[in-house]
Amino acid sequence: MPLMEKPDNREMDLLTDGLPPIPILLTKIPKISGTESLLEDLYAIILAKLPLTSIITFKRVCKQWKSLVESPFCRDLYLSMHQNSYYSSWSFMCRGCETETMAHYGSDNWCLTRSLGSYISSFLAEKFENREGRVVAYTDVGLILIYVVTNQSFYVANPVSRQCVEILPHNHAMERFWILGIVTRTEDEVVLGYKVVLLEKKKNFTSFLIYSSETGSWSLETVSFPFTFIAQEFNNPISLNGKLHWLAHNPEYKDFLVSFDFYPSGDKGSDRCRVTPFPDLDKTTKFKRACTTCQGFLMYINIVSVAEVDKLCVWRLKSEGWQLVSEISTDIVTAGFDYIPLGMNPFDDKLVYFWRGNMEGQDLLSINLHIGEFMVHEELERSSDGRVLSSVGGPREIEYIKETFYSSFVLPRWLHPFPN
Predict the structure, then answer these.
(1) pLDDT tens readout for residues 100-112
(2) Which residues contact 297 (CB under 8 A, 6 or more apart)?
(3) Which of 9, 59, 193, 322 has the greatest number of CB atoms lying within 10 Å of its CB?
(4) pLDDT at 270 (0 to 100)
(5) Which residues lie in coiled coils (predicted)?
(6) Residue 102 and residue 69: Cα distance in Å, rounded?
(7) How many CB atoms lie within 10 A of CB 233?
(8) What local confidence, expressed as pLDDT, does residue 313 receive?
(9) pTM, full prediction
(10) Strands 100-104 and 340-344: what pairing?
(11) Structural contact between residues 389 and 100, judged by C-beta atoms closer than 8 angstroms
(12) In this structure, which topology does domain 87-261+270-408 adopt according to CATH?
C-alpha cells in the first residue's frame, strides 16, 4: 500500500509539535465490497490504542478518516479500552486572564507534551494576533469562551483541537450587558449544544441575552428573581451541567450562591433559579468565598474556626443543600496558614490544592482530605503523575493572582467536535 503524504497543514504542525513520529501506514479505506466494514473496525481498533493528540492528527488526513474518528463506534471503543484512565488533562486558570497556576498533563489519554495554558497562549497568538482576543470563561468539557474587543465578537474554541466557532455580536450588546459565561449540554461526554450568556441587571428585573448553538441566533430573556440582592459578583461564574453559578449578597450582607439552569428539562422550567446560603455563615472563615468543581459537583472550600480550632472544611452542593464531606485539622492548617485555595482535583475528591508566592519564590501545597497528609512543592517541577506547578511572572501578576478567582479548565476523555 502506498504511504499518504502528510498534508501541508499548519494547524497539524502545531498539534504535533513535540510529539514523536508515529510509523503507521495512513491509507484511504478501500471501496471493496464486503470488506469495508471489517477494515473500518480494524482501523478503529488501531486508532483506539493511540493518544488523542495522534487521533486528532489522523482525522485531518481525509474525509473517511474524519468520519471514522467521529463515529460513535470509535468513541465507545476508545472509552472502553481506556475505562481505567479516569484522569484527563486539566489546569487551574486565573479568571479574566490566561495565567496558569497549576497544570496536570502528560499522564492521561491525551499524552500532551505541554500544559493547557500553553495551548491556549499559542492558539490566541495564532488565531487573533493583535486583535485583543482574551479568554473570559473556561469549562470542564474542553471549551473556552473568547471575547475580541476590537470587533466585539465571541469565539467558542477548543485550544487543543483548534476547532473554533465565531459568534457575531448582537447589536449594542456590549453597551448594556455583562459577560456572564458559557453553558453546555452534554451526553456521554459529547457536547451537543452550548449557550453564550450575557446579563443586564436592572433594579427590578434581570435580562439574559443568550446565543444558542441550536438556533444560531441571539435571544433576550427577562427574569424576576424571587429574592433581593444588594450585590452580585458576575465576574466569577462557574459553568457546570448546563447551569451557571455565581456569588451574591443579601440585604443582611450574607453570602449566597445563585444557580440558574439554562437547559431546564420537563417540569423544571418554572424552577430554574435557586439560591443557596453558604453553610458557614455563622462561623469565622479564612478565605473569601468561592467555589470549585470536582467529579461533576460544585464544591466549596474554606478554613473554619470550630470550637476555637481551625479546620479545613469541604462541602458538596446537592439538591437538598450543602453536604459536609470533609473536616480535618492538621498542623499546617492551624499554624499560620498563609496559602490561598486554588481548588480541588477535578477527578479526585480527596485532593485539594493551595498556592503561595512572592518575588522570592512560589510553592504549591496539596492536602489529602482522606488521611490528612500534605505535601509542599517548592519549585517548578514535573511529577511522575503529570502534575506541574506553573511559574508565575512579575510582582504585578503575583498580586493579581492573590486577589483573583480560579477556574478549572478540563479536557474531556474523548474529543468529539462541538456544534458549529
Answers:
(1) 888 888 766 777 8
(2) 240, 316, 317, 318
(3) 59
(4) 62
(5) none
(6) 31
(7) 16
(8) 93
(9) 0.83
(10) unpaired
(11) no
(12) Neuraminidase (2.120.10)
- Tell me the three cell numbers of residue 358: 512572592
Angle made by CA atoms 157, 188, 116, in degrees to the nearest 5: 35
Alpha-carbon distance of 399 to 359, in angstroms, equals 10
- Furthest C-alpha separation in the chain: 77
How many other C-beta atoms lie within 10 A of the C-beta of residue 155? 19
The whole-angstrom separation of Cα 144 and Cα 198 is: 15
- What's residue 268's pLDDT? 55
- Look up residue 3 and give its three cell numbers: 504511504
Q: Which residues of the chain have pLDDT under 70?
A: 1-37, 83-86, 96, 107-108, 130, 172-175, 203-204, 266-270, 334-335, 358-360, 378-403
Q: How many CA atoms lie within 13 A of 126 on its CB side?
A: 18
The model's pLDDT over 345-391, given as tens digits with 9 standing for 90+, comes to: 999 999 999 888 766 677 788 899 998 888 887 655 555 555 555 55
Exposed / middle / buried, residue 165 (Cβ in 10 Å: 0-12, 13-18, 19+): middle
Spans of all domains in the chain: 33-80, 87-261+270-408
Q: Is the dihedral of CA 236, 194, 346, 108 positive or negative?
A: negative
Q: Are 133 and 127 in contact (CB under 8 A)?
A: yes
Helices 36-47 and 72-81: angle between axes, nearest 10 degrees: 40
CB 248 within 8 A of CB 229: yes
